[in-house]
Design brief:
6 strands; 12 helices; 4-stranded antiparallel β-sheet
């Protein structure tokens, strides 16, 4: 690949993130992982420890002010209100509603610098700040809009939080409305599965998929391939990433390898919505007619 050593960058990714994220599911480490993601994909000179230190300094400030302002024992809603006030009023973080699909919103270092981001990056920041207050939050892979939740002591209920909307606490009505905005007219039922905790690895894969979409839109195929290989480094059987590897190989003229990857995709997900299209591509590759009119 011209100008981009994918193999060395993927090795860097494996050393800095993959080994940790697959062996220990720690949401508080997401900020660290997200910064390494930004460094490897777009900001090679990024000083991850220093940037993470800025976040942790904010966390210390939030924790110190909590000691002064919040009575003990702290109610979870009080802690959430305090974090909201600190992040969105004192520190001036805000949702990027004007330029939502800008890939810069997916780089945590840029979010920290510009004080603006999308749901997933604001959630990652929120988790790290909350950790400084010893307030445990879990990531939720909600459709089209990343969320967080706090599980009450003893498992007696949970509180769902939307950092993209100022740390709003989400009840079932708000969640249903969010689902309907994301999938208008589809009448999707709100089920428990939508607010189940996701893993740190699934969170990072979602962040990478956001960037894959941006790179594909801009036809930056080098970074698209790198982001895709970073997904596969975490989850070697990720069906979408296997399919996309096949498409990249096809664009590079490596037809036999492409066919193998696309076959693997269909073996893993035979009921995929695009299964017929992918099967047609494989047939064209095998017959030597792909790309010929």
């Amino acid at each position: 690949m011209a100008g981009l050593d994918i193999n060395s960058r993927v090795q860097d990714w494996q050393n800095c993130v993959v080994r940790q994220v697959v062996s220990k599911d720690d949401p508080a480490m997401l900020a660290d992982y997200a910064l390494h993601l930004a460094r490897i994909l777009a900001y090679p000179d990024l000083d991850v420890p220093t940037t993470l230190g800025k976040v942790d300094d904010m966390g210390k400030q939030a924790a110190e002010s909590a000691k002064k302002k919040l009575a003990t024992p702290r109610r979870p809603t009080q802690v959430i209100e305090h974090i909201n006030s600190f992040l969105f009023e004192t520190q001036k973080f805000r949702p990027n509603t004007d330029d939502y699909y800008n890939p810069l919103n997916s780089y945590l270092n840029v979010v920290i610098e510009r004080r603006t981001g999308i749901p997933i990056t604001l959630c990652i920041l929120y988790i790290r700040i909350a950790e400084a207050l010893d307030f445990k939050l879990l990531p939720i892979n909600f459709p089209s809009h990343f969320l967080l939740k706090h599980v009450m002591e003893g498992g007696n209920g949970e509180i769902v939080i939307d950092p993209f909307n100022g740390g709003r606490i989400m009840d079932d009505y708000a969640l249903k409305a969010l689902l309907e905005r994301s999938y208008p007219g589809q009448q999707i039922s709100l089920t428990r599965a939508f607010v189940e905790k996701t893993t740190a690895s699934r969170t990072i894969i979602r962040l990478l998929n956001n960037l894959k979409g941006s790179y594909y839109e801009s036809q930056d195929m080098d970074k698209y391939e790198l982001a895709n290989e970073m997904v596969l480094a975490i989850d070697q059987y990720n069906p979408d990433a296997i399919r996309d590897r096949g498409i990249v190989l096809l664009k590079e003229g490596r037809s036999d390898e492409a066919a193998s990857a696309l076959n693997m995709y269909l073996e893993i997900d035979p009921e995929a919505e695009d299964a017929d299209d992918v099967l047609d591509i494989i047939r064209q590759i095998r017959s030597g007619t792909y790309g010929k009119k």
